[in-house]
Amino acid sequence: MAGRLIIAIIQRRDLEALRQGLTSAGFSFTHVASYGGFLLEANDTLFIAVNESKVEAVLAIIQERCHTRTRYLSPISSMLETGGLFPPAPVEVQVGGAQIFIMPIEECRRID
Ligand code: 2BA
């Protein structure tokens, strides 16, 4: 099969809806708890290996179930720089719906 490995980094709040969507459509996946390097918040990474012909179906499920959310950060560093005189302006960050990487699978073996 011409396989593809879809790596999807999603927000934790979308995990259960996505899990149900993928499972009910018959897709297998591995879920790894992860952390975003920028926000240092928990997120989740899913590894989904599929036939190339199923990539769009998986992406449609992710699109339907993972949502963009706005986060506001208080940059503590700018407060420290001003000696705490000025409260920092919150920084708006858009997170998600999902960060997706799609890679070709060179070989797939199952050991029984
Ligand atoms: P975080 O690294 O915690 O990033 C959360 C959000 O913060 C990002 O949302 C983006 O809006 C913002 N952000 C990240 N790095 C930034 C920077 N250097 N300067 C300004 N803003 C920044 P998303 O783009 O939706 O990413 C959500 C999560 O997906 C990320 O969490 C990270 O875990 C993963 N991710 C995103 N891009 C990636 C990449 N190129 N490689 C590996 N993982 C990635």
What keywords describe this structure?
112 residues; alpha+beta; 6 strands; 4-stranded antiparallel sheet; 24% helix; two-stranded antiparallel ribbon; binds ligand 2BA
Structure description:
This protein is α+β, with helices and mostly antiparallel strands and 112 residues long. Helices cover 24% and strands 38% of the residues. It has helices spanning 15-24, 55-65, 76-81; strands spanning 3-11, 30-35, 42-51, 69-73, 91-95, 98-105. The strands form two sheets. The chain has a four-stranded antiparallel β-sheet, with helices on one face. A two-stranded antiparallel sheet has the order 4-5. A hairpin with a 6-residue loop joins β2 (30-35) and β3. α1 packs antiparallel against α2 (55-65). The structure holds ligand 2BA.
Shape: elongated
Major sheet: size, sense and barrel closure?
A: 4 strands, antiparallel
Q: What is Rg?
A: 18 Å
Structural class: alpha+beta
Adjacency order of strands in the biggest sheet: 2-3-1-6
Strand content: 35-45%
